[in-house]
Structure formats: structure tokens, C-alpha cells
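[09:14] KT: can someone run the structure on this one? pasting the chain below
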Amino acid sequence: MNLLQLQKLRIKLKAYESNLLDDSCRMVLDAVNTSETKAVGPIPLPTKRRIFCVLRSPHVYKDSREHFEIRTHKRIIDVYSPSERTMESLRGLDLSAGVDVEIKSF
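[09:31] RB: done, C-alpha cells below
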């Protein structure tokens, strides 16, 4: 794809731990700012909560249950008019293992 046609990149970051996610957002913004490109974000999206109810004992004491929760934190960063230098700096990032990154171009 020709970068002259590329107007905007949307970078979606997801993680279970919010501090890992914030560190990764900071690294992405530092990489974008070194190439002097305009970026907006990180924009926090609603946290998805998944709650699981588990019986404490498999056969008796049905009223005794435990609840476990998994929270998925999400952030969006928009990069406007990315240059080749911006793309190279984003490719060279070494983000944490617990962070899922999804990049879309518009």
C-alpha cells in the first residue's frame, strides 16, 4: 500500500493489566513523536468484565461459591498522516508479552 494514500492509523491495544497497557501506550506515543507525526490518544475504552461463578465443592455445599473476574482494558491511539519513518519506528517496538496490538489503516 502506498503511504501517500494512507491518511490514518488506528492502533488498538488490549491487556489484562492496566499498568502494562499504559506503559505500552507510552512507548507507542514516544515512537510516533520521535518521527514528528501527530497522534491522538490514548483514548480509554470501557473495560470488559467477565465474571465466572465456580462451586467450591463439586458434590456438596451448593450454596458455597467463588466468583472470579477477568478484566480486559482497552486503549485506542490514532496516528494521522504517518510517514515511512513513523512506520519504521512502530515496527521496531518491543512491547510487553501481555499486550495485544491491532493496527488498522484508513
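[09:33] KT: thanks! Helices lie at 18-34, 84-91.
[09:34] RB: yep, looked fine to me
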